[in-house]
Amino acid sequence: MRILTKEESQYIDRMAPEKYGIPLGYLMENAGSDVAQVLANHYKGAKSILFLSGNGNNGADGLVAARHLMELEIPVCIYLFGESQKGSQLFKEQLHMVKQLGIAIYTSLDDIPWHTIWAVVEGLIGTGMKGELRFQMKEVIEIVQSQCELYSISKWSIDIPAGVNANTGEVSHSSFKADYTITFGATKQGVCLYPGKEYAGHVIVKPLGIPFEKVLQNYQAYHNTWGLDIRLIETLLRPRSAIAHKGRNGHTLVIGGSNGMIGAPLMAGEASVHSGAGKTTVAVPDDCLRTLQNKVMPEVMTASFRSVSDIMDLVKDKSVLALGPGLGRREETAQIVLEFLATYDGPIVLDADAFYALGDMANGETNGVLQSRSHPAIMTPHLGEFSRLTGRSILDIQKNYVQSARDFAIAQHVVLVLKGIPSLVALPNGTIYINMAGNSGMGTGGMGDVLTGMISAFVAQGYEVNEAALIGTFLHSYTADRLGTKKLWGYTPSDVSVRIGSVISELLSPSLNV
Ligand SMILES: NC(=O)C1=CN([C@@H]2O[C@H](COP(=O)(O)OP(=O)(O)OC[C@H]3O[C@@H](n4cnc5c(N)ncnc54)[C@H](OP(=O)(O)O)[C@@H]3O)[C@@H](O)[C@H]2O)[C@H](O)CC1
Ligand SMILES: [K+]
Question: InterPro entries, from UniProt (predicted)?
């Protein structure tokens, strides 16, 4: 699923007429008629649909929809916000039409017969919002929202709810909180991120009337964003060959663990087994080996290490290395990690305490350690770890969530799995995937270790690092969602781990009821 930024939407707006001779009014006519169709399909009873119309093109979309609904004999009325004579050209044209058609138009909220309204459709402002919502618009939204609550009126937004930043998902105070948002071409980035996502309600995507990917091919600042969803994963997952033996399915090596932190590499190793790696070895420091052996499932092989050369020996015949879970933050461990990264060039997934060794990558000596690898490293930090890696505050990262992930993945030439709400996968070329799965029950210790094991197992089975990060990240959350339908919290990382194989089987053979 493609996701558009504000700048991409505005570029399409500009290029449609300029380069392809497609007047913006055509796109608006499509947009408005789609809004009308969706509303008509939902419409109940004899009540009216009220359009809140700003004086830009977002408002004009609503005026087009009102005209189309009138044809369908659905009662409509309009509330005009702002000065009409200062509105966009298309707004003025559409306003003239609805006036000529005799549609009821209000300029004061006090005059609206709220008890006759079934739905409010907000076209106050869309991708044209600059900065924070202005005071007058906030006031209107607050009154409308309280009337909607009082009269049980359903709330719709056109393109993006008023007040939601179309790129970052940040919201102005008093933003419009919709039950549904009808958007055009592709969903906007800001409604895939929190808190914007909560303000958009259910998002309905309708065609724009122009093949926008074609238009965007020439866009200079073009780094695209996609939804990480089931459809994408179905295109990436490959059935296993009937004759695949354990050698063909790869061998994961997990290096981690320290005294009191043996669960982390153990969960990563077990998740690798459950995700289909042919073989899995977990290696821990010498003094932790006995504890590991007492706890780990029999399918996982065990080993131990003391030095970098031990790790070099262990990794020789392995398909992928997962480095970091529970490794601890001792200075000598950090040295081992750095020394090892400088010599080993194979596929690697870095997690947890491996990041401690890397420190602040933007300013520290480790900047450059990962950049020239033949297989870009996969890194799976949570926000706290990412804050340390980038030397920036969590708040600052959250404000520019997508862009922060993109900048880091490009600069360090890594596949970044940024574990947040939602998680992101950023590829070294700047392409971003926003995870569409996941739930609040996932916030438990050990979930990250399972993710590391899963991603590693997909690399072991022959997926490219980009693909493995996408498949692992999505299936981890998707499996948790399956568990979340039965109990929204309290399921364990190991529950996710154990279930993953059945979920993959279902996806590969939908008729299987496993
Ligand atoms: N390519 C597409 O996807 C298409 C999108 N369409 C629709 O067009 C809007 C974008 O329309 P645009 O005219 O560019 O802008 P808006 O209508 O969203 O907003 C402009 C008005 O908002 C005022 N404004 C700006 N910032 C603020 C603010 N912070 N608070 C309050 N009001 C604000 C602005 O006032 P100015 O004084 O600054 O001029 C304008 O009045 C898109 O979202 C789609 O719905 C097309 O219909 C089809 C193609
Ligand atoms: K809107």
Answer: Carbohydrate_kinase_pred_CS, CARKD, Nnr, Ribokinase-like, YjeF_N_dom, YjeF_N_dom_sf
Is residue 130 annotated as involved in ligand binding?
Answer: yes
- Whole-number Å distance between alpha carbons of 30 and 210: 10
**Structure tokens of 264?**
């982390």
Separation of alpha carbons 183 and 204, rounded Å: 6
Listed by start position, the domains of the chain span 16-217, 244-462
Q: Do you know the residue count of the chain?
A: 514
Domain 16-217 has CATH 3.60.40.10: no
Considering every ligand atom shown, identify the ligand nearest to the alpha carbon of residue 29 and give its number.
Answer: 1
Cα of first residue to Cα of last residue in the chain, in angstroms, is: 27
Take atom 11 of ligand 1 and give the residue whose Cα is closest: 57
Domain 244-462 coded CATH 1.20.120.450: no
Residue 154 annotated as lining a ligand binding site: no
Q: Letter for the amino acid at 438?
A: G
* Model confidence pLDDT, tens digit, residues 69-122: 999 999 999 999 999 999 999 999 999 999 999 999 999 999 999 999 999 999
Q: Look up residue 80 and give its amino acid.
A: L
Using CA positions, which residue lies closest to atom 47 of ligand 1? 28
Q: Which atom of ligand 1 is nearest to the CA of 127?
A: 43
d(CA 267, CA 253): 13
CB-based pocket (< 6 A), ligand 1: 9, 12-13, 27-28, 31, 54-59, 61, 82, 88, 125-134, 137, 158-159, 184-185, 208
pLDDT at 513 over 70: no
- Asked if the ipTM is above 0.95, the reply is yes
Question: What secondary structure does DSSP assign to 247-266, as a single string?
Answer: TTT-EEEEE---TT--HHHH
Instruction: Tell the burial category of 265 from Cβ atoms under 10 Å away from its Cβ (0-12, 13-18, 19+).
Output: buried
Give this prediction's pTM. 0.94
- Asked if pLDDT for residue 139 goes beyond 70, the answer is yes
Tokens of 474: 């999505």
Q: What is the dihedral of CA 310, 316, 317, 322, to 10 degrees?
A: 70
- Identify whether the C-beta of residue 166 lies closer than 8 Å to the C-beta of residue 9: yes
Atom 45 of ligand 1: nearest residue by CA position = 58
Residue 159 marked ligand-binding: yes
